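Fill-in record for Glutaconate CoA-transferase subunit B.
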Amino acid sequence: MDTSYTPKEIMTIMAAREIKNGDIVFSGTGISMLAAMAAKKINAPDSVIFFETGAMDSLLEEIPFAVADPRIMYWAAANSSLTDAFATMQNRITGDRVIAILGAAQIDMYGNLNTTCIGDYFSPDIRFSGSGGGCDVASFVPRCIAFMQHETRKFVKHLDYLTSPGQLTGNGAREKAGLRPGGVSVVVTNLGVMRFDTDTGQMYLDQYYPGTTPGMILENTGFDMDVSRAAPADPPTPAELKILRENCDPQRLILGPA
């Protein structure tokens, strides 16, 4: 088997490794769903995947194209509702076990996300779909994985619009605003993995992939970032790649060309 890998493959595996047994994974579609499926088949078989449309613990024999795709409901433990899906995040028993996977157009050093627009809100250069539940997730869920392409236009000093809260301005600002601890806890990009300092709330480089360096990552980051704690990431193993390619996305619908 070819043990080389694409950026999407290593991003998927790195995100899957963040999911542990017993986690309740709130997933969207695309690469986030693929990461949740990979975790369940590789390292977290006792995790549970659920979707905003209410499907919980589906069999997921094929990759659905959207959260309203009927394949989301196939052999689900429960087909509930949007209300129940969001209630799971805020429930005192289940809420602490939820981990969510989000994407964004922009992220700042405190893990705040923009999924609304680029440019002025009233006259934007690009208008996106908005929160779509992302603000609720970032506000209530204790751990979130953010998927991003690592570019200076995406890792910015100041968001064009704050859609979903991370650590706000850091140093406890999130808790002072009345939000529970949580938000984006790890950022997985095509270059490395970032986390957030527990005291300052600022992003730091945790791992860099084979073929990248901390300097390369800094060149693609639009703000100062601590790289002193960075270590090389363990690349995907042959076993992880085999399961990802053959059991999760054999048609490479999400992974794309090899």
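KEY FINDING: The mean pLDDT is 94.
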